[in-house]
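Can anyone check this?
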Amino acid sequence: ISYSSRTPMPKPHIPLPLHPTELQQMIVHPRWFDRLPFPRMRDSLIRLRGVVDEEELCKDFFTMPSFTIEVGCACWDPSGWRMEKEWEEKWGWLMI
């Protein structure tokens, strides 16, 4: 079961890329979206609730090559993440 709510304002120590977007603060959504370091993807998932198969997305996160993080980059920094080809072909549109 996924816990859903609006995202509260972040504590001061939370890195900027993980700060909630306006949509996250206004619209109730599954809180696991908040853990993604990509604001555009978080907003896309909120806008497309009921359209995107969240179960399939989660399955793909764990069963197909999705992202690599460049050595030395922080895990919360989206600039250090690189999409794998297969993932980009299937889910890359969520980043637009």
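Reply from J.R.: I decoded it. The first helix runs from residue 22 to 26.
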